[in-house]
Amino acid sequence: xxxxxxxxxxxxxxxxxxxxxxxxxxxxxxxxxxxxxxxxxxxxxxxxxxxxxxxxxxxxxxxxxxxxxxxxxxxxxxxxxxxxxxxxxxxxxxxxxxxxxxxxxxxxxxxxxxxxxxxxxxxxxxxxxxxxxxxxxxxxxxxxxxxxxxxxxxxxxxxxxxxxxxxxxxxxxxxxxxxxxxxxxxxxxxxxxxxxxxxxxxxxxxxxxxxxxxxxxxxxxxxxxxxxxxxxxxxxxxxxxxxxxxxxxxxxxxxxxxxxxxxxxxxxxxxxxxxxxxxxxxxxxxxxxxxxxxxxxxxxxxxxxxxxxxxxxxxxxxxxxxxxxx
Length: 326
Known about the structure:
This protein is α/β, with parallel strands linked by helices. Helix content is 26%, strand content 25%. Strands 5-9-4-1-2-3-10 form a seven-stranded parallel sheet, with helices on both faces. The protein has a five-stranded parallel sheet with strand order 12-11-13-14-15. A three-stranded antiparallel sheet has the order 6-7-8. The radius of gyration is 21 Å and the shape is globular.
């Protein structure tokens, strides 16, 4: 399989700024693209001006801006746009940030094109002409390598999988408007309304470098968890028990049935470490556990463990970090 050029979906915020994980995708794309280069696909009406300097620094040669009458926030319509972008760019590899929405669009696109799909990858290489995706499976207990032998590959990549690096040289990418013919079946679902989350000042949970998680041991009081997260500049997560009890919103749930995270630093406070939670965080770089139960399963995978009361340990840690920060 010829793996060049490589197409990357440019996820962005409403103000047109790229999501942090996109720079990681572009770094991976350059590693496997070869001389054919990296192309981007822009879905949405947001202005490209904010993103163009970043794309130039990442060595993107062409940006395909989707022009469609359908709403690209619908996965079926987005799949139509990505199919058109693959054809226009001549790419045999498509990389996307690993999110619920992108994985759904990737699945639709693969059915239409016969491409091979790998989700939640944390690395990419090329061997014998095939894209090989590295990923953890079975609740993070196994590391696997998945070779895509189909003519094209669609890979969703977890946030914080690789360090983002700028290209050796840069030039402003060419922006090309790409008309998209939306299939009749793609508009069977209609988007009625979109509501943006209120800004919390914290990074997105799925792409944060630091995540502080509260579990049953918080007994509903996330004050210490939020304080430490704010000092570290991290996101706040929770276990399924905490969200089921209504202590925090379900969008904060980490686990097999929630958000999958792979931050550089994970801090679990009052988290027992049940298997369904571990499946969503075990790929974290460094795992710190704070629990009053010395036999809690979380200690089996923790790099650093503290047996103690989280309401005593976390405030002390926050205070010391503030002192070190001056």
